[in-house]
Amino acid sequence: MLPRQVVKWILVFLVISPSLFPVSVSEADSSYWSAKKRHMKKKVHDMFYHAYENYLTHAFPHDELKPLSKSFTDSLSELGNLKLEHLPQHYNGSALTLIESMSSLVIMGNNTEFERAVLWLSENLNFDVDARINLFECNIRVLGGLVSAHILATDSANRLVQGSYKNQLLTLAEDLGRRFLPAFDTPTGLPYAWINLKYGVMENETTETSTSGCGSLILEMGALSRLTGDPIYESAALRALRRLWSMRSSLNLLGTTLDVTTGEWIEYSSGIGAGVDSFYEYLFKAHILFGKEDFWRMFHSAYLAVQKYFRHGPWYHEADMRNGKATYWQLTSLQAFWPGLQVLVGDIAAANSSHREFVHVWKKFGVLPERYLLDHLMLHPTEKYYPLRPELAESTFYLYQATKDPWYLEVGESIVNSLNSYTKVDGGFASIRDVTTMQLEDHQHSFFLAETCKYLYLLFDDSFLVDRNYVFTTEGHPLPVLSSWHDRLPEAYIPRNWTFLPSEKQARRASAMTLQVCPATSLDCRHRCQQVKSACHIPDARSDHRCFGDEECGVDATTCRRRTCSMAGYCGLWLFI
Ligand code: DMJ
């Protein structure tokens, strides 16, 4: 038994202790999560450099690393199933993984290595090669990587110190963009899927392409036009996109594959995964980046059709574009990007419920299998692989940005742990050939550095996004939302009265990705890059964008639309379904 006096003092201490140590439960919580974020950021940083340094040691300047044999593959020409015989003997690759890593290097704060990469590419990259490449892959990886790196090299952060940067990356991007143009020379304006960088479209080239192959070129080619002042790239991509949209069915659905010479569909069944995914993504992101109302209208109708014909609870199956009837009941790894897109649209409740299902499947197998048959609740017999894809990490990052719910940090942590336990090898990170045995495959895809590591890093440290407003391309390369790129908005949507912000240091804001849902500021680079704020912006009542009613939501500065409160209690640009 404790003496009475002691018990009394213990009780007194318990009563007054909260004022002696004023750490509330939520402060303790937030310091726990801050420490967790620091720890996880370091883990992701180490993963990125393990992959990057092994690439530099064993594969550079070739395209991608083979981490098991510590060798390389010149995969740019293989992407999309090209056979190796198309490659000339002297072809030495195009340093694909280096190009793809550049924006991640900047996001992780390594300007020195970024500068080294800029200099090397400026001196060595050459597209005048007899190589048949896939237009879509080359656009999102190489053109997107170069355009984004050019913007990062020239933005107000002045990253390059050694000598002056003379737009070498933009010159390379323009050279590549010009080599894309012969692909669009078809009766329909829909581009060939394959093109030889030196000789243009090859004889007897296949006329079959995919919806994403010809409908997701607008961000990179549009940015190239805005940067060079030459509209030819954007016009070609826009013409193809419009033609594709005109091929939709009366249900506003598109198929998966088509013929570029006849403009006829080949595969009528489609979903939100392979062959279509980034088409939807680019309609909406093009609206954010270029402001055109047309993109919004196309996206809005397409999104409603997806929700109506493909969605089944939190899952998305495939359906025939002609009658909307379900065709294949499959969950595919690529579909996991969809909740991230829904966050940008403001459909957070739907994003959250689908994301949970993907997490569930990830946890069941340890990673996401390429294809999972929803009607049989079993793996697809041949597509059991996991090639280090980023889509689940990407959606997790967006959902955390929108909700700040630490549950998403835990999801990110388990993704990082799985990647480290199942795919890390001495020579880098290897793909998984079969998720049931975790047997590895000798390939470290460049998107592991461009996207998987980047989104995981941004989940735990979003300082790159503070006070900035970026759209990430489908390959994870950031492009800034610039008021000067919005010049073709219809009158009603031009955010008027842009005013320059006072130059004193601004207070630290919440991450710009959150602001992207209702951005207060934008970068204007017409003369030199400056932060400008929009007169139409009205912030949400609460900084976490939570709400009880519409009156607590503000006005989105990019679109000047009034935001509304969702059923899940978040302000957003909601769609009425
Ligand atoms: C990436 O190359 C891009 O995200 C593309 O749009 C489809 N998915 C791969 C990675 O999974």
Automatic annotation (TrEMBL):
Active site positions: E137, D277, E370, E391
Alphabetically ordered keywords of this record: Calcium, Endoplasmic reticulum, Glycoprotein, Glycosidase, Hydrolase, Metal-binding, Signal
UniProt-listed GO biological process terms: carbohydrate metabolic process; endoplasmic reticulum mannose trimming
Obligatory cofactor(s): Ca(2+)
Residues annotated for Ca(2+) binding in this entry: T474
GO cellular component entries: endoplasmic reticulum quality control compartment; membrane
Subcellular location, record wording: Endoplasmic reticulum
Domain of life: Eukaryota
A Pfam family this chain is assigned to: Glyco_hydro_47
Matching SUPFAM superfamilies: Seven-hairpin glycosidases
Main location group: endoplasmic reticulum
One GO molecular-function entry: mannosyl-oligosaccharide 1,2-alpha-mannosidase activity
Keyword Calcium annotated: yes
Similarity comment: Belongs to the glycosyl hydrolase 47 family.
Protein name as annotated: alpha-1,2-Mannosidase
